[in-house]
Amino acid sequence: MAPRQADLFDVPEPSGLRLTEAFLDTAEESAAIASIDSDDLLPFQFQGWIGNRRTISYGWRYDFENGGFRPAAAMPAWLVPLRDRAEAFAGLAPGTLVQALLIHYPPGAGIGWHRDRPVFEQVVGISLGAPATLRLRRRTGPRAFDRAEQHLPPRSVYLLSGQARHGWEHSIAPMAEPRWSITFRALSALGLRQTRNGPEGSPPPGRVAG
User: Fold this and answer.
1) CATH class of the structural domain 17-196
2) Where are the alpha helices (DSSP H) in the chain?
């Protein structure tokens, strides 16, 4: 059965957010969760604060402790087919999604309000385990926001691009059950400039093969 395209909101905003259910089947989901759990994930750190989710990056890594952006290990072989499928879903050319972030959320974990760092452009996320709620907000005044929510069923995939990527913040509401995610990112024009002008020996932008 082909994946079902989900209706997002009663209003047309935020543009650039797209979701498809059943991107993976249950066997693929179980295999992906097992691969994430077998990896060397570490607690997320942000300027001295340690979060209760665990993460690892491939391709490129953004260091939230010092703001550094540097190459990371190549994507493992099991991630490469998922990366290729994510590019096809998002309508991106092969080799566009050069960064991957794996996350395990134990019960009670979520992500606070943020925009992805400006070195990144399109964001493609695969949701595994417990269902989650992607919350979005756009400031309209000193204390006022437009708000929207997108349900993320297990095994679904979503795209953040355009206004949804740049004009809105997003967060993940804490969950009572464990969840895992795979997030692929493309480099922005800023990110491409930084990779070209980065430390000697940095890999060029493009496909990071497993």
Assistant:
1) mainly beta
2) 26-37, 79-90, 162-166, 189-196
